Every structure is written in C-alpha cells, then in structure tokens.
Amino acid sequence: MRLRHIEVFHAIMQVGTISGAAQVLHISQPAVTKVLQHAELQLGMPLFERVRGKLYPKPEAHRLFVETEKLHRDLQGIRRLAASLKGRALETVRLVSTPTIALSVLPEAMTSWRREYPETRCELGTHHTSEIVNALRLGEADLALSLQDPRHPGIVAEPIAHGVMTVIAPAGSWTEEECRMPVSADGLAGELIGMTDNDPLGELLVASCEAQGVTPVFNTVVQTYQIARSLVEAGAGMAVVDPFTAASASDKLQRRPWAPAIPVQLYLLTASHSPLSHVARELANSIGATARKCLERGCQ
C-alpha cells in the first residue's frame, strides 16, 4: 500500500463513511473512493462491506489497521515537523516548560530577555515532561524546561540551577529560630497537602519520610506545586514543594529546607540534533540566571 492509500484507509476506519473521510482529509468524495478502490485492487481483495452508504471493515481490514497504525502516526509526525520548519521563516523561539517553572521563573526571565530582544517572536507553552520530549523530537519546540531529566537518547539535559525540596507553612507557624533549621519527617504537623502518586519529587518525599519511620497522610492531594502553594498561603495546611515554587512565594507563608536534603535540578532540555540559535541560547541564559537569583532570594 502507498502512503496515500494508508492515509485514506485510516480515515475511513475512523469515521466509517466516504463522506466523513473526505471531510477529515479535505479532499473530494470521488477522490476518496478512487484511492480506496486502487488500494483494494492492489491488495487483491475488498477491505470493507458496503451497506447503505456505510463501510464496515472486514477482518482483513482490522488486521491491516493494526499493522499500519505506527506508520500512519509517523507520517503525521513528519507532516507536523515539515509544517513547523516551514513556519520558521522569521526568527522565532519556541519554549515549552512544566507549569512549575512557567509560573515561578519564566515571567522575570522573559522580561529581562525581552529588553535585549524586543522584536524576536517567542512562543510559550506548558506541558508535562513526557509531552515535552515529543515536542522537542518533532521539532515543535526549540528548548524546554523541566525538573526532570527524561534520560532520552535524543534529548540533551543541561542542569542550569539547583536547590532542595522545601517545606512551606502558613505565616506564623514557626519561630524565627525554627525557620533557620531544616524540617525532617517528624516535623510535619497538621493538615498535609501532597502531590499525586505519579509525581517524581512527591515519590522521593514519601520515600524519605518512610526511611525516617514516618508514613505521611495527605488529606488533600493536588497535581501542581502552585496549587499546593496557594492552599498553604490560604492557611489550608503544610506542604513540601520544589525550591522554585517555594522561593517565589509571597510573605503569607514561611519556608524551611527538608532534611535530609532532596536535591532538585532545573534542566534545560534540547533536541540532540538541533543546536540552539544565538537568541534561544540567550533566553536560556536569562532563565538560568533568574532561577539562581530566585533561589538566592529564597534563602534570605
């Protein structure tokens, strides 16, 4: 089967009609019919039962669909990459970040970088790390930020700032002397706000607690550290968050490092086959400098 055959075949499998496939592919119904007939002629067998205008896949069609699905996904990825490259005639920097860094570090970093590059177009987006890897590999992003090293052979992970997990509590929870000391598992008190089970840093925290003989109970569980911080600022409890979220918090809360320390790195992620332009590298430098400055302020 040719690539065009596969594309039409998959569209029909998904929508079940010639007219629907034509709309999905933005071509005429006769064109869809012609391509399908040609594919069936090449294969030497019909792929669908025609009943009252609808197409019902034969068993052979289902088997063919399974075998061609990966090729179809790869074809879609190549087209997205081609469209992305075509759209880069003007200087554009495309940055994706996990929500944590997008809200805690990026605003100040972008403001600083923009003073030097006021005319450069910059596209910002937020994704989880697994989605970031796909965006970089497909050429849909130039650089990315994450607190995780994805350890992917096609991705370069460059540490640009580092801190430690930090305990945050509503203002007035600790004395000034206590604020100068780290908090261990037995120092967690009151309502605890935790992260969902699939959060890597959250898993390290639970493992650290259990190693100290403490099993933490989280009555409130959230998906992002920003939500945890907002809850703490509102007086809803205590949480352990990444250092960038903690350092950029308001004076409505207090913070202390976790003990024993759980290191946290901020990584600049790029595709190994796509070096950064000068403008993109300058943005990365601004982000690194802002992140380190943010942590220095948080330690004061």
UniProtKB/TrEMBL annotation:
<dbReference type="InterPro" id="IPR000847">
    <property type="entry name" value="LysR_HTH_N"/>
</dbReference>
<keyword id="KW-0804">Transcription</keyword>
<dbReference type="GO" id="GO:0010628">
    <property type="term" value="P:positive regulation of gene expression"/>
</dbReference>
<dbReference type="Pfam" id="PF03466">
    <property type="entry name" value="LysR_substrate"/>
</dbReference>
<dbReference type="GO" id="GO:0043565">
    <property type="term" value="F:sequence-specific DNA binding"/>
</dbReference>
<dbReference type="Pfam" id="PF00126">
    <property type="entry name" value="HTH_1"/>
</dbReference>
<comment type="similarity">
    <text>Belongs to the LysR transcriptional regulatory family.</text>
</comment>
<protein>
    <submittedName>
        <fullName>LysR family transcriptional regulator</fullName>
    </submittedName>
</protein>
<dbReference type="InterPro" id="IPR036388">
    <property type="entry name" value="WH-like_DNA-bd_sf"/>
</dbReference>
<keyword id="KW-0238">DNA-binding</keyword>
<dbReference type="InterPro" id="IPR036390">
    <property type="entry name" value="WH_DNA-bd_sf"/>
</dbReference>
<dbReference type="GO" id="GO:0009089">
    <property type="term" value="P:lysine biosynthetic process via diaminopimelate"/>
</dbReference>
<keyword id="KW-0805">Transcription regulation</keyword>
<dbReference type="GO" id="GO:0003700">
    <property type="term" value="F:DNA-binding transcription factor activity"/>
</dbReference>
<dbReference type="InterPro" id="IPR005119">
    <property type="entry name" value="LysR_subst-bd"/>
</dbReference>
<feature type="domain" description="HTH lysR-type">
    <location>
        <begin position="1"/>
        <end position="58"/>
    </location>
</feature>
